[in-house]
Amino acid sequence: MRKKILITGGIGFVGGRLAKKLSENFEVIVSSRNILSADNKNLHGIQFSILHSDLLVVERFPTNIFAVIHLAALNEWDCVKYPSEAIRVNIDESRIILENSIASGVSKFIYFSTAHIYRSPLNGDINEETLPFPAHPYAITHKAAEDYIIAANLKKKIQGVVIRLSNSFGAPVSPAVNRWTLLANDLSKQAVENKKLKLLSNGCQYRDFVCLTDVENCIKKIVMSDSDKFNKLIYNLGSGIGLKVIDMATMIIEVYKELYGETIPLELPEKATLSVEPYIQFSIDRLLKEGIVIKNDFKKELKELLLFCNQNFKNNA
Does residue 236 surpass a pLDDT of 70? Predict the structure, then answer.
């Protein structure tokens, strides 16, 4: 019998990809704030779903769950618009789901946090020992939720792992997933819809981009690992490579030309000039020492993303 895994926010951008990937080896249950249709379940490769509200009542929490992957949270935009709701959802609901997981005998609790708990903007050398200075409601609430998972782990109530994710990109499972504001995803969608890319800055800022395929493979290995592995509690998950925004845009243009034989232009803001921006070195050494392999096949990920955009958004052009 296959082990059961619960993914909260399991039809979102990262959660949807994880659900589809992990369903190859596990019985995956996803939570959603709405009842999922049979077509939506099939799209994600899953059979079972649960209402998110059921996770907040221990008597309705699903039984015989081996691992919980907790992604459900207000996004960065809604955290600014609704700060009290951000505290309720990102902190208090995370605490309740953690406590109900412990009460229900869950072995592993993997919490998706954000690299932006360190500082905003991200720059300089950053590793898991770097002192966090969260400055955005999204980062502040994620840092508070982290502390609950770490405390539960230190008290040996559950094996908790905190993942501080950098800027992930890739094709979502469904075009309805509302994460097209993410830079690489937005630019890929622009390429298909407008046949040009338009940046809102000079593009000289550095970011750590990570392929969703690498995120999938990393989390799969954590879930399948023995209990004595990944005991450092906090892990940065990124590429470990600082890349300029304009370099990502240029790469998208190159991959688009390889796919469709057409060179599309890149537009910068009027009067934009080059600037020297602080570099970022987002260390993933702690993950690498656990045997995780980050392939960083950016072009393959962008190719799949552009093909997805062409399939789903070409008629919008």
Answer: yes
